[in-house]
Amino acid sequence: MPAKTPKGEALPSEMVAAVAAGKSSTAISVHFALASSPTVATPLPVQIAIVPHEPFSTVRVHFESHDGLTMPEGENFGPVNDVPPEKPLSHQLMLLPAKEGMFMVTATVDTLSEEGNVVRIFSIPVVVGPAQAAATPAPK
Question: How is domain 16-127 classified at the architecture level of CATH?
Protein backbone atom coordinates (compact mmCIF):
# COMPACT_ATOMS: atom_id res chain seq x y z
CA MET A 1 0.00 0.00 0.00
CA PRO A 2 1.52 3.37 -0.98
CA ALA A 3 2.25 5.88 1.77
CA LYS A 4 -0.29 8.65 2.14
CA THR A 5 0.76 11.91 0.56
CA PRO A 6 1.28 14.52 3.26
CA LYS A 7 -1.23 17.34 3.21
CA GLY A 8 0.01 20.57 1.69
CA GLU A 9 -0.33 24.04 3.07
CA ALA A 10 -3.27 24.56 5.41
CA LEU A 11 -5.99 26.97 4.33
CA PRO A 12 -7.12 29.80 6.63
CA SER A 13 -9.86 28.58 9.00
CA GLU A 14 -12.43 31.06 7.65
CA MET A 15 -12.31 29.46 4.17
CA VAL A 16 -15.10 27.11 3.13
CA ALA A 17 -15.34 24.80 0.14
CA ALA A 18 -17.27 25.87 -2.93
CA VAL A 19 -19.97 23.43 -4.04
CA ALA A 20 -18.64 21.05 -6.67
CA ALA A 21 -20.77 19.75 -9.54
CA GLY A 22 -20.29 15.97 -9.40
CA LYS A 23 -17.17 14.54 -7.82
CA SER A 24 -14.95 17.34 -9.11
CA SER A 25 -13.31 18.08 -5.76
CA THR A 26 -11.26 14.86 -5.70
CA ALA A 27 -8.86 16.24 -8.35
CA ILE A 28 -9.06 19.94 -7.47
CA SER A 29 -11.11 22.01 -5.04
CA VAL A 30 -12.08 25.65 -4.71
CA HIS A 31 -12.39 27.38 -1.33
CA PHE A 32 -13.52 30.91 -0.51
CA ALA A 33 -13.85 33.44 2.32
CA LEU A 34 -16.00 36.57 2.24
CA ALA A 35 -14.28 39.63 3.74
CA SER A 36 -17.56 40.83 5.30
CA SER A 37 -21.30 40.22 5.23
CA PRO A 38 -22.58 40.94 1.72
CA THR A 39 -24.77 44.05 1.58
CA VAL A 40 -26.34 45.98 -1.30
CA ALA A 41 -24.08 48.60 -2.94
CA THR A 42 -21.04 47.67 -0.81
CA PRO A 43 -17.95 46.24 -2.58
CA LEU A 44 -17.25 42.72 -1.32
CA PRO A 45 -13.72 41.26 -1.54
CA VAL A 46 -13.71 37.45 -1.81
CA GLN A 47 -10.53 35.48 -1.13
CA ILE A 48 -10.25 32.37 -3.31
CA ALA A 49 -7.96 29.34 -2.89
CA ILE A 50 -7.74 26.81 -5.72
CA VAL A 51 -6.29 23.58 -4.32
CA PRO A 52 -5.04 20.96 -6.78
CA HIS A 53 -5.01 17.43 -5.33
CA GLU A 54 -2.91 16.06 -8.18
CA PRO A 55 -0.31 17.62 -10.49
CA PHE A 56 -1.60 19.61 -13.46
CA SER A 57 0.22 20.95 -16.51
CA THR A 58 -2.09 23.97 -16.56
CA VAL A 59 -4.87 25.43 -14.37
CA ARG A 60 -7.09 28.33 -15.37
CA VAL A 61 -10.35 29.53 -13.79
CA HIS A 62 -13.12 31.76 -15.09
CA PHE A 63 -15.50 33.28 -12.52
CA GLU A 64 -18.97 34.42 -13.53
CA SER A 65 -21.58 36.27 -11.51
CA HIS A 66 -25.23 36.60 -12.42
CA ASP A 67 -28.07 39.12 -12.29
CA GLY A 68 -27.84 41.30 -9.19
CA LEU A 69 -24.17 40.65 -8.53
CA THR A 70 -21.49 42.30 -10.67
CA MET A 71 -17.79 41.41 -10.66
CA PRO A 72 -15.69 44.51 -11.34
CA GLU A 73 -12.45 42.62 -10.61
CA GLY A 74 -11.02 39.09 -10.71
CA GLU A 75 -13.06 37.43 -13.45
CA ASN A 76 -10.12 35.34 -14.71
CA PHE A 77 -7.30 33.44 -13.00
CA GLY A 78 -4.33 31.93 -14.80
CA PRO A 79 -3.26 30.10 -16.73
CA VAL A 80 -0.75 28.77 -14.19
CA ASN A 81 1.62 26.11 -15.49
CA ASP A 82 3.31 23.13 -13.79
CA VAL A 83 0.97 23.13 -10.80
CA PRO A 84 2.10 20.83 -7.94
CA PRO A 85 -0.48 19.01 -5.79
CA GLU A 86 -1.67 20.37 -2.42
CA LYS A 87 -0.22 23.87 -2.92
CA PRO A 88 -3.09 26.39 -2.83
CA LEU A 89 -3.26 29.01 -5.59
CA SER A 90 -4.55 32.35 -4.30
CA HIS A 91 -6.88 34.73 -6.12
CA GLN A 92 -9.19 37.59 -5.18
CA LEU A 93 -12.56 38.59 -6.61
CA MET A 94 -14.38 41.85 -6.04
CA LEU A 95 -18.16 41.58 -6.09
CA LEU A 96 -20.67 44.42 -6.07
CA PRO A 97 -24.17 43.38 -4.98
CA ALA A 98 -26.90 45.42 -6.71
CA LYS A 99 -29.87 43.94 -4.83
CA GLU A 100 -30.80 41.67 -1.94
CA GLY A 101 -31.12 37.95 -2.43
CA MET A 102 -29.30 34.66 -2.90
CA PHE A 103 -26.78 34.62 -5.75
CA MET A 104 -24.26 32.16 -7.16
CA VAL A 105 -20.80 32.86 -8.48
CA THR A 106 -19.77 30.08 -10.86
CA ALA A 107 -16.13 29.02 -11.05
CA THR A 108 -15.26 27.11 -14.21
CA VAL A 109 -11.95 25.35 -13.55
CA ASP A 110 -10.12 24.22 -16.70
CA THR A 111 -7.25 21.78 -16.06
CA LEU A 112 -4.77 20.04 -18.32
CA SER A 113 -3.00 16.88 -17.11
CA GLU A 114 -2.02 13.41 -18.32
CA GLU A 115 -5.77 12.63 -18.38
CA GLY A 116 -6.30 15.43 -20.90
CA ASN A 117 -8.29 18.64 -20.67
CA VAL A 118 -11.02 18.54 -18.00
CA VAL A 119 -13.47 21.31 -17.08
CA ARG A 120 -15.00 21.27 -13.59
CA ILE A 121 -17.74 23.56 -12.26
CA PHE A 122 -17.95 24.96 -8.72
CA SER A 123 -20.57 27.27 -7.17
CA ILE A 124 -20.02 29.94 -4.53
CA PRO A 125 -23.24 31.00 -2.78
CA VAL A 126 -23.56 34.66 -1.77
CA VAL A 127 -26.50 35.87 0.33
CA VAL A 128 -26.87 39.65 0.08
CA GLY A 129 -28.59 41.63 2.84
CA PRO A 130 -30.06 45.15 2.71
CA ALA A 131 -27.83 48.20 2.34
CA GLN A 132 -26.32 49.41 5.58
CA ALA A 133 -27.99 52.51 6.99
CA ALA A 134 -25.64 55.46 7.30
CA ALA A 135 -24.44 55.86 10.85
CA THR A 136 -26.36 58.62 12.58
CA PRO A 137 -24.36 60.90 14.84
CA ALA A 138 -25.09 60.53 18.54
CA PRO A 139 -27.31 63.29 19.98
CA LYS A 140 -25.42 66.05 21.76
Answer: Sandwich (2.60)
